[in-house]
């Protein structure tokens, strides 16, 4: 039956109330600008949102010394470029300057010139951002949070690389020269929060700032940091950083450290601040009192070796513990300060050698062995953090030997991690690696768009030339200017790239600097 006959012969249905039609959306004559105005556009990256949410440009402006503050500097542009470049999978900052036109007047790189400033308090900027992330997010109960301290190293060759010294690399089994950086963070069930970093220098092979290139101001932030790195020991710096974190309002129940920080002064500092210290101890001549007699750690291990048992059937390690008394007084002429601690001995069930065992010290003798080992496992989060900043976040990747750049690079890597870590907490369903990969993909897409825009602009201009006779050159120029303004504002919002910086890159190429 034809359709029109079916309408005639079919019985007429009962009248039903008509549903009101949705108002028709007006036709958009600016689809590009409409798409960019949507809240879910890919220009709104997590890094850009984090910079705006915490007003990092204002915090950076406050971190610059007042006497040398310059209101004409494009701080948002510079800060965004400094935070973004490692996520673009670029080998070095120099390559980033060459590709994304961060050139000032065709002579000096804006980013290197900014990183070379001595008066920026990068430590204060990191501490303020960490405090805001800590207060704005729930990291878990205090009973499951711990301060974690550890140091990492980055090999840096060259006699003119400032702030370096010799250290023993355990992965390669030999002595190397480079930067050693002490880190303090807050480990919780939801992740790791970096709080502070400090470059340290040992006594062997140290390279201070050369006399022919002194600091312009010995009271600047970089100069004070270099003096602190050379005058204080690693243990003294740890105690100072821990005290500063407590004064800033960070709270935890434990302090975790490996054998390098297991000394009496550090244990006493934790007890004075009402923190439970869980540290791996060296198997040296540390004397403990057990059942009225003094023993070394080796002798105590001989007492518990035969009764060590695994906690579960599938556990690969066997443990045993003793409650002993430890003298925290480091000076032999001072009166002894005895405190009760628990020593937990651990060894593999199927050990290749009888000497493969470790000992952990806990200042709370009431904690059980499984609880001590469970809390100590939080220390692994700082190792994951070290791997992340070295492989993906540009840790000490700036190709310069000046101490100011190393000082800035250490804290900038932590700032990048903090912004991505907060994005992970806000998303709630993605892991840190997924957040980082997504942001890296977005930024690479935006960078590719920025490089293609000049080609697209020439094609659009060529297409509009054919309409000059019909529309007039004045109208064509107006259309082209509107397109330029829309796309360039989008790129400036996404990548902090302005037309002036593009012109500076072209000028730098003409002068032979790129």
Task: Provide a quick synopsis of the model.
Helices cover about 45% and strands about 15% of the residues. The protein has about 525 residues and is α+β, with helices and mostly antiparallel strands.
Structure description:
This protein has helices at residues 3-9, 31-36, 46-53, 56-63, 75-84, 93-99, 110-115, 122-136, 221-231, 234-247, 264-272, 297-304, 369-376, 380-391, 403-427, 432-465, 468-471, 473-495, 499-511, and strands at residues 103-104, 108-109, 146-155, 165-169, 174-188, 191-200, 254-257, 276-281, 288-290, 293-295, 309-310, 317-327, 338-348, 358-362. β7 (254-257), α11 (264-272) and β8 form a beta-alpha-beta unit. Residues 1-16, 24-44, 101-108 and 495-499 have low confidence and may be disordered. Helices cover 44% and strands 17% of the residues.
Features:
514 residues, alpha+beta, twelve-stranded mixed β-sheet, two-stranded antiparallel sheet, disordered N terminus
Which segments are poorly predicted (pLDDT under 50) over 5 or more consecutive residues? 1-16, 24-44, 101-108, 495-499
Number of strands: 14
Distance between the termini: 77 Å
Cα-atom radius of gyration: 31 Å
Q: What count of helical segments does DSSP give?
A: 19
Structural topology:
Layout lengths: L2 H7 L21 H6 L9 H8 L2 H8 L11 H10 L8 H7 L3 E2 L3 E2 H6 L6 H15 L9 E10 L9 E5 L4 E15 L2 E10 L20 H11 L2 H14 L6 E4 L6 H9 L3 E6 L6 E3 L2 E3 L1 H8 L4 E2 L6 E11 L10 E11 L9 E5 L6 H8 L3 H12 L11 H25 L4 H34 L2 H4 L1 H23 L3 H13 L3
Parallel strand pairs: 3-7, 7-8
Antiparallel strand pairs: 1-2, 3-5, 4-5, 5-6, 8-14, 9-10, 9-12, 11-12, 12-13, 13-14
Helix pairs in contact: 3-15, 4-8, 8-15, 16-18
